[in-house]
Structure formats: C-alpha cells, structure tokens
UniProtKB/TrEMBL annotation:
List of residues binding Zn(2+): E122, H185, H206
Residue ranges that the Swiss-Prot or TrEMBL entry lists as coiled coil: none
InterPro entries, A to Z: Amidohydro-rel, GlcNAc_6-P_deAcase, Metal-dep_hydrolase_composite, Metal_Hydrolase
Cofactor note (record): Binds 1 divalent metal cation per subunit.
Gene Ontology biological process terms in this record: N-acetylglucosamine catabolic process
Protein name: N-acetylglucosamine 6-phosphate deacetylase
Superkingdom of the organism of origin: Bacteria
A molecular function GO annotation: N-acetylglucosamine-6-phosphate deacetylase activity
Alphabetized UniProt keyword annotations: Carbohydrate metabolism, Hydrolase, Metal-binding
Co-factor(s): a divalent metal cation
Length: 370
C-alpha cells in the first residue's frame, strides 16, 4: 500500500516543498521547488548509509549468532537505512564465524533493521605497527583467505596497509574481484599512498586516524589522501577529528563520506563493552581502551548529521556526506537519493533535525530512544 510524506524534500535537483509517495520504492514526488527548507516544515532526506559500523545496542558484529540483527536495528532507529557490517582484526576462524552471521542477514533483511549491503573487512591485512584499537592479529593478505571469507558474505570494502610487502599486488586482485580497497591502519609514506591509489585503491579508512600524519616535509598517508583521493571516510563525532580537519578534508576530497565506526556501546549507557577481543569503556561521549586510546565510537548517523550542521556545513551538503557520497562509492544508484524508482530509504526530521520517522525499503522503523 502506498504511503505519503509531506515536507521539504531533498531531491538530487534540490529542495521541493510537497509530497513524496512510496511503497518499497519511491513512486512520486510532487511539489514546488524552493531554495531552502521552509521554516517550520519537516525535512525529508535520503536514508543514511554507514560504510563502517562495528556494533551497537550492546552487540558486536564479531559476536556472530544474530549480533548483526541487533546492530542493524539499533542503527536503523537512528536513521541508518543501509550499512556495511565491519569486522575486527582477529584469528581467521573468528572472522569466518562473524561473516557466516552477516551472510544470513544479507540474504533476508531482519524486520525493523537496516539493509546489510555487505562487509567492510577492516583488517586483518593491516600494519601491526598501526593497530590503533585493533587486536594484534594482523597478517599479510592472501587470495586464498579472501576467497573463503568472500564466499561467506560479500565483501564490499577491505581496509589494508599498502606498505606491507605484497599488498600492492593484493590491491590489484581486490579490484578485479569487485572489492573496494581502502588504505588504513598504515605507517606508509605519501609515496606508498600514491602507489596504492595507482594500483587501484579507492579510499581511506577513518581519515586522519591510524595513519601516518601530514607534515610539510613528510606528507604521509594523510597528505596522499588530501592531494589525490576522490573518496575517504571521516568520523564526525568531534572526538576523532577536529572540526577544522573535517573542513580541510571537505575542501580537498570531492566525495568525503561520514562513518560512525560505532561499537557495541552505541545506544547504550556508559559502561564496559567489547570490541572484537578488546574490552572497552564508554564514557564522556566516547569509547576507549584502558590506556585511553579511542576505540571506535558511540556515534549514530543522525548525530553525525547534526554535528556537521553544528560546525557550519549547510544541511544539503551535510546530507551528501552521510548518505549520497557513500552510495556513490559503493555503486548503489538506487540508494542515497530521493528520486523516482529509488528504494524508499527515507528519513524525516523536524526543523531542528530531530529524527521523527525512518523507512527502510518502505518499512516504517521503530525509532531508538534519544
């Protein structure tokens, strides 16, 4: 049965004051173009897309046994309509256990949950010298291990350190296999980053974090990203990255997209949780290892949008960072935009950007508690 939503609708052509009709797909958008949202009117936006999410609602993707359902429901309740289930660096059997669960959820979306579009394999093919909050199971990537994991659940994005011996050739294989290689958890130089991009790397994992920093005589991986990348992730919880650095990345990287990098503590009270094999503590708006290292986040995408607007980014541009750019990166042409025939992945927010409705492929989602 067709449903209708009225308000200021953000289409690829701009704002329309009117009505959006939909079932599982968008069937009509009727109204009058306006230059900006009208005061007092709700805003109707494309659903958020999170390419890097480890957990939420007390569950971690690495738990398996239905954990991804909990994660996908928690984030759907905050406006995320599709996501990539993201793994941790771990022994092979642990990753296989997690991916078997993700594959099940991909085959049939659980009710009330975001669509799981695939896997972001963050590790184990990273530099052991730049683990960040990843456990110490880093190893060199092999085609054999990749093939086994990919058969369990489709890998869409894979984070790796390109300076590790053999990884430039591995990047070339990933591209042939249709997997997007991302540079991250890397001690590599600017030159290593450029070489990786030339080999086929497509983006950078949580830009600025867990990679060699920008210095004017040693530009590092950050310099390679700012100089050459079309796509890169950034975590806009305002803890991982300073607002000025987010602004810098926006000017340099045409299709910067936001991720939460959220963990089991997202949507939960302060306390102790786990991230892969690590024990982490949620407090003061973040999540950390015992030594104080940031260990993912407790960010949700509705808050990510509000954070971007709070630092002066216009709403229509902020929406591209939490939705459309990630869809473009993944090649998802019927998500991340409100247009005829697109999936009815829809977020409705009040004028002060509080979430009021979320629809995943036309299904009304129960919103999470604030």
């Amino acid at each position: 049965m067709s449903e209708r939503i009225s308000g200021c609708i953000l289409t690829p052509q701009g704002w329309v004051l009117g009505t959006l009709s939909f079932d599982e797909r968008i069937t009509a958008i009727d109204g009058t173009p306006v230059p900006a949202p009208r005061d007092g009117e709700p805003v109707v936006l494309p659903g958020f897309i999170d390419v890097h999410v480890h957990g939420g609602g007390g569950a971690d993707v690495m738990d398996g046994n239905g954990a991804i359902d909990t994660v996908a429901r928690l984030h759907a309740g905050h406006g995320t309509t599709s996501l990539l289930a993201t793994t941790m660096t771990a022994p092979r059997e642990d990753i296989e256990h997690a991916l078997a669960d993700v594959g099940r959820a991909m085959r049939e979306r659980p009710a009330g949950a975001a669509r799981v579009l695939g896997v972001h394999l963050e590790g184990p093919f990273i530099n052991p010298g730049k683990l960040g909050a990843q456990p110490g199971f880093a190893r060199v990537g092999t085609i054999e291990e990749l093939r086994t994991l990919h058969e369990l659940a489709r890998i869409r994005v894979l984070t790796l350190a390109p300076e590790v011996a053999g990884h430039l050739d591995f990047i070339r294989h990933l591209k042939i296999a249709g997997i997007l290689p991302q540079i991250g958890h890397s001690t590599g130089t600017y030159e290593d980053g450029v070489a990786a991009l030339e080999a086929g790397a497509c983006g950078f994992t949580h830009l600025f974090n867990a990679m060699s920093e920008l210095h004017h005589r040693k530009p590092g991986m950050v310099g390679a990203a700012l100089a050459h990348a079309e796509f890169a992730e950034v975590i806009p919880d305002l803890l991982h990255v300073h607002p000025g650095a987010i602004r810098t990345a926006r000017r340099a990287i045409p299709k910067l997209f936001c991720v939460t990098d959220s963990t089991a503590g997202a949507g939960m009270p302060d306390g102790t949780y786990h991230l892969g094999s690590h024990t982490v503590t949620k407090c003061l708006g973040g999540v950390r290892l015992a030594d104080g290292t940031l260990a993912g986040s407790v960010l949700t995408m509705d808050q990510a949008l509000r954070n971007l607007v709070s630092i002066g980014i216009p709403l229509h541009e902020a929406v591209r960072h939490v939705s459309t750019n990630a869809a473009d990166y993944l090649g998802e042409r019927t998500r991340g935009r409100l247009q005829l025939g697109a999936h009815a992945d829809i977020v409705v927010m009040s004028p002060d950007l509080q979430l009021t409705h979320t629809f995943v492929e036309g299904e009304a989602i129960e919103l999470a508690d604030a």
